[in-house]
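TEACHING EXERCISE
Course module: macromolecular assemblies
Task: Read the component lines below, then compare them to the predicted structure of the full complex.
Student: A.B.
Group: 4
Components provided:
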Amino acid sequence: GAVVSQHPSWVICKSGTSVKIECRSLDFQATTMFWYRQFPKQSLMLMATSNEGSKATYEQGVEKDKFLINHASLTLSTLTVTSAHPEDSSFYICSANGSPAWLFGPGTRLTVL
Amino acid sequence: GQQLNQSPQSMFIQEGEDVSMNCTSSSIFNTWLWYKQDPGEGPVLLIALYKAGELTSNGRLTAQFGITRKDSFLNISASIPSDVGIYFCAGAKTSGTYKYIFGTGTRLKVLA
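Instructor-supplied answer key:
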């Protein structure tokens, strides 16, 4: 059945480095994917809308040059956290329309030292 | 970012009790979803609602899409320990892409 996967499930990196997170739709195609960020004990906050073949749309307050999104195919969207800092440490979750409802990936926990 | 108001924030209940939580918005939504999230995992869809007034069940879970389109309710009957987790509502407006806005979450703890 339709599933959204993410890779890696967790990553630890040094401050100043860049980290790429992949979001894949399995058994379905997704022209649109969403990226969320979740801090401990908080809800999911929408960061950006990833559109296949076009530029991503970012929510207010989210730096597009820091969080690069590439939706190169109908089954893959990537989020790259550039020059990561400790305050970027969070749980990043993607979602895609698995019809009839939106499915979520298992999340990627990023820890920046 | 925008969030929906969800209440209660947290609740402790005894096993076997029924649970109710709700989600409200200042604006109208055309779709309401309810998710459950376990620690360290992504949200898992519980119930999807697409029509005002709709009442949908999934096992012991029942959710309703409010008539005003500005709220939704989730009820869990006869709670069990594995119901523990965080429950989120999510609403979307039909505007081309279904951009879901999440509620603040209800943290549920079930005492055996």
